[in-house]
Amino acid sequence: MKLLHGQGEIIADRYQIVTLLGQGGMGSTYAAVDFRTHQKVAIKVVSLRTARDWKTLELFEREAQVLATLNHPLIPNYLDYFQLEVEEDSPNSDCRFYLVQELVEGESLATLVERRWQPKEAEVKEIALQVLDILVYLHQLQPPILHRDIKPQNLIRQQDGKIYLVDFGTVQHMVRNPQSFVSTFVGSVGYMPPEQLRGQTVFASDLYSLGATLIFLLTGKSPETLPQKMLKVDFRRVIKLSEGFAQWLDRLIAPVIEHRFQSAQEALLKIKQRKQQLERSKKNQIISCPSNPRITLQKSNYNLLVKINYQASMSWSNLAGALLCFGSLITIIKDSPPEEVEIFSVFILLVSYSIFFMLVNFHKITYLEINPEIFKIKWTYFLIWNKQVQGRTEDIAGVLRYQKMDNTPPCILWEGIKPHHLIDEQRVGSRSDIKPKDIEWLVAEISDFLKPIQ
Predict the structure, then answer these.
(1) Does the annotation mark 149 as catalytic?
(2) What is the largest CA-CA distance in the chain?
(3) Is the peptide bond between 227 and the residue preceding it cis, with omega within 30 degrees of 0?
(4) Superfamily of domain 107-281
(5) Of 133, 149, 433, 438, which one is the catalytic site residue?
(6) CATH of domain 10-102
(7) Which of 297, 277, 275 is nearest to 287 (CA)?
(8) Of the four, 50, 198, 355, 395, which is 20 to 30 A from 133 by CA?
């Protein structure tokens, strides 16, 4: 399509074209500068000669009328609307209509995703909150306004994260029963709800389009290219989300109107409630085993830290006896002839090893940390030696307590078929400070934590 204006061209003795921003069936949009205010503006132009039909001009005029009445911080301000006659009384004569708005400097969500932007779930939620705030405003006007074309191309993101809704070329005042309003077919494939394909739009129609847009941001794919289940986009097969957000998103894109949120206010309230619940759940709860304070948990919905602080059944008298033996051998060596020193040295090494082994195993702390991505286990022995393993949480097959023939039940975390002993067999029993009922409680707590995040 031939451009209506070139860079540097001046329109109406006031606006100088800077660059083309976009071009489509409803006209062309340019970035420009207002000579009077020195403000950067966006100018949308529709040509009578190139318009597909009178409906295009009708929608353009309606867009200008609607924008002139709006006042929301995330909708670009309306500035001017005018028309110009071009090359009158010639074969190339034309009538052009101009809509001038505040220029929002940023990039569309579609452009960002094309450039490999992959927003996290938390970022997508923030976008949803901002767009819902705009929809609440539009839907509560008298008469209410439906946007009817919410999609990634019409949402502009600034560097500070603010989201602006643009292109009101398909807006419609809802002046009839909101559940039976019928209009001309408009919208964008992949982002339109089923009823909009039939020419019907309601409040929940804009919500469906928002849901489809959020799915595009999360997957990087247009919704119509994703697998479907029961006539609904099955985003769960291609992206893993928190269950609460997934359920909320499911309601936005329900193919049946009655199964969706019925208003932007309702959808906004639900996602805010879930956000508040998540913030509360992130606060750690410190829990001790009811029957053994040596086992403690710091627990939230997304993080678990287990600390098992225990000592072996060895008594202090055993250790004292080993140390006394070691001292006696040293004394004997001092008074022994050289040929006997080598023999006693072997005994000293054996006793030294026994003392070291008793010290290492006498006091042991096991730390287990789990979050939705990874788990870590760290064993610390008498504060002088430690070892650690790490793996993926999704690979945890379970945490089991099983009974052996000698009635000593260890606690094992299974990473696939690989076992990690949280509590060894010799540390459980009547002579130890870890009892079978303590392990049963610990296994239940870890298993309950893992269920919702795996």
Answers:
(1) yes
(2) 129
(3) no
(4) Transferase(Phosphotransferase) domain 1 (1.10.510.10)
(5) 149
(6) 3.30.200.20
(7) 297
(8) 198
